[in-house]
Design brief:
It comes from Sporofaciens musculi. Pfam families: Spore_III_AB. This is Stage III sporulation protein AB. There is one protein chain. The chain is mainly α and 173 residues long. The protein contains six helices and no strands. It has one domain. Helix 4 runs antiparallel to helix 5 and helix 5 runs antiparallel to helix 6.
Length: 173
């Protein structure tokens, strides 16, 4: 009987940890959106106040950013300085999809960010700032929606972890 009880406790603990890990993934996607928003505000400031061109701005922000955003921004900067051919939109899209695929960003946001580069590279500084403002507004709306869903999803993940452990324990005992 003691062995069954210990096994049941271990099963419940394991599934509870699984639920906690799932809840952390949900929270991580929101945290990544917040960090992306911060980086885009920095990009906006570099363009608007420092009058930096995109390559310079990517270098300045990339040096301060955390991984994988650091590699993404510094890679963009080196591609722009190296003039490896192709348009800015192509460089942005390829580097965004490759460099940020494991960042924890939502797939829909990653695709929208990749598409954003096609507009950013062909505009002057004033238009770039306006495009960044528009994208930041869209990002803010996405974050508001995700914040509302996040609380519910986190609770569900925790409850499902514990309840599935109890269910499996009842089935085994």
């Amino acid at each position: 009987m003691l062995l069954k009880t210990m096994g049941g406790v271990l099963v419940i603990a394991a599934t509870s940890m699984w639920g906690h890990a799932a809840a952390e993934r949900v929270k991580n996607s929101y945290d990544q959106l917040q960090y992306l928003q911060k980086l885009l505000y920095l990009l906006r400031s570099e363009i608007l106040y420092a009058r930096s061109y995109l390559g310079e701005a990517f270098l300045q922000i990339g040096q301060k950013a955390k991984s994988p955003y650091r590699e993404w921004l510094l890679g963009l900067c080196s591609q722009m300085e190296g003039e490896r051919g192709g348009t800015f939109a192509e460089m942005w899209e390829v580097s965004t999809k490759a460099g940020l695929k494991d960042s924890g960003l939502l797939e829909s946001e990653l695709l929208r960010l990749a598409a954003f580069g096609s507009q950013l590279g062909i505009a002057d500084a004033e238009m770039q700032v306006k495009l960044l403002d528009l994208y930041l507004d869209e990002l803010r709306l996405t974050m508001d929606e995700l914040r509302e869903e996040m609380r519910t999803k986190i609770r569900i993940c925790h409850c499902l972890g514990v309840m599935s452990g109890i269910f499996i324990t009842v089935l085994l005992i």
